[in-house]
Amino acid sequence: MRAGDFGAPSEDFRVARFIDEASVSWKVVAMKRSFQPEEANVILQIPLGRQHYEDKLIWNFNSCGIYSVKSGYLLARSFYADAHSRNAAQGESSTRGLISSHWQNLWKLEVPRKLLLFLWRCSNEILAVGSMLRSRHLPVDPGCPLCNSDLETPIHLFGACFFARQVWYSSNLQVDS
């Protein structure tokens, strides 16, 4: 198995395995056997220092160098956020300014924080409604429990559903049809 292949590398994939301690140089043959040619060439260009340090595993994603579930979680969230922002930036660039101003206006509203978070969750379709729960492989009926006709989505639940519209119309709010 090469280091670049999928799967966990074995214990012998430590840097010391690829350094000739006597000459303080890379073991070129071992390097080329263990890595893809491009990877091996890049690694072989890294200069080696004269001082010997013991090999140890270091987690680069926190200041103490030790893996924790929290640092792994934060890293995974940042990967997700990066991928999400890259996807959002592609294609719909003409509406990015509108979306950005939409969020800025939303957070400026002088309403209870609970309502802001609720509106944000509705906009991002992360409410615990049937369709979203089913998409996360939970054993629930994805249909609307009120009208039994459509998928229960935030848009359906708060506007498209016949029963939801009746609630809006009977409220003190002035809701257009």
TrEMBL record:
Pfam families: zf-RVT. InterPro entries: RVT-Znf (IPR026960). Residues 101-168 form the Reverse transcriptase zinc-binding domain. This is Reverse transcriptase zinc-binding domain-containing protein. It comes from Davidia involucrata.
